[in-house]
Amino acid sequence: MDLQTDDFQHEIAAAVKSYDKFVVCMEKTPDEFLKSLQSLMAKAITAFQNRAPGLRHGIALDRHVTIMLSQNEDRCAEFTSTCTRPSARSQVSAA
User: Which residues, at least 6 apart from 79, have a Cβ–Cβ distance to it below 8 Å?
Assistant: First the structure.
């Protein structure tokens, strides 16, 4: 499966919109958050494509954001991004 960061632009845009609307003071501006998501997505894709047989996930994270690509039953990649800090949580999922 050949995946690129651009394949998830819709999901990344939704995560950035959610971040900009709901997350306050997390050490990143919305532009920095977007760059972080794009970098983490590239790392998650690499982890997903190089995962061991039988594993279903590619994960990348930093102090505040976790991106997980998961293989669904149709062998397609699904995207989940979770942004956490002690008082804020935002999750965006898309198939």
Answer: 8, 11, 41, 67, 68, 69, 92, 93, 94
